[in-house]
C-alpha cells in the first residue's frame, strides 16, 4: 500500500529524517514509535505532502507520490490527522464532519458518511449540534479522526491520537480504530509516543531514533523486546 524508500527530510540545516525505509501492507495497522524528536511527526508530514522530501521516494499503491501536495493526496485516498487534533472549534460537530467530506465528488456519501461516523463514535452523535469547543479532549480527538474519515481515505495517518488523554479514553479510541480496520480494510499509520497503547493495536511497528529507523518488527515481538524498549522507548 505504502512504500517509503531512503526518505530524507530537512528543516533548513536540521536533518529530521535520514534515509528511512518503511513498507506498510494494505489493511494493516503500523505503529511508528520513538521518543520526542525522533522524527515521527516529520515522517507523517513528508508522506502527506506538508513537508517536501529532500530525497528518497514515497509510493502509494505503486504510484509515486513523493512530490504530491496535500490536496492531491486527499484525492488519492490519504488523510492526515495532525497532532493537536485540528478541529475547527467555532463550528459544530456536524459542520466539522461535513467539512471533512467536502473533497468527495459523490454528494450522496456526505449523508451516509455522516451517519456512519455518528454510529462509530456515539459521543459525537450526542453532541452533534454543539460547537467543537465544548468537547472534551477525547471527544475532540474522535471528531478529528471522524472528520478525516469523511474524505473516505484508504490510508489514514494519525499523529499521537492518545496524547493528553486519560488511558481509558485512549484505549477506547484505539479500539475504535481496530473496529474500523476490521470493517473497512482501512490502512493505518499510527504515530505514538505511548508505545504500550500503540503496540496493543498495531500489527507491525517501526522505531525511529534521531531520524533513523532502529527497529522494524511484528508488534508482538517488539512489545517483548526489552532491549529496544529500554534503548529507544523510555526516553
Ligand atoms: P514529537 O513527539 O516531539 O513530535 P517527533 O518524533 O515527532 O517528536 P519531529 O517533530 O519529527 O519528532 O522532529 C524531528 C527533528 O526535527 C527534531 O530534531 C526537531 O527538533 C526537528 N524539527 C521538527 N520540526 C521542526 C521545525 N519546524 N523547524 C526546525 N526543526 C524542526
Fold and architecture overview:
- One of its GO terms (biological process) is L-amino acid transport.
- It holds the Pfam family ABC_tran.
- With 235 residues, the protein is of the alpha/beta class.
- It has a domain at 2-84 and 154-233: P-loop containing nucleotide triphosphate hydrolases (Rossmann fold, 3-Layer(aba) Sandwich), CATH 3.40.50.300.
- It is 39% helix and 26% strand.
- The chain has ten helices and ten strands.
- It has helices at 40-47, 70-75, 93-100, 108-120, 122-126, 137-149, 167-184, 195-201, 219-223, 226-233, and strands at 2-11, 14-24, 29-33, 55-60, 63-64, 78-81, 155-159, 187-191, 204-209, 212-218.
- The protein has a six-stranded mixed β-sheet with strand order 6-7-8-3-9-10, with helices on both faces. The protein has a four-stranded antiparallel β-sheet with strand order 2-1-4-5, covered by helices on one side.
- Helix 3 (93-100) runs parallel beside helix 6 (137-149).
- The longest helix has 18 residues, at 167-184.
- The protein starts with a strand and ends with a helix.
- It binds adenosine-5'-triphosphate.
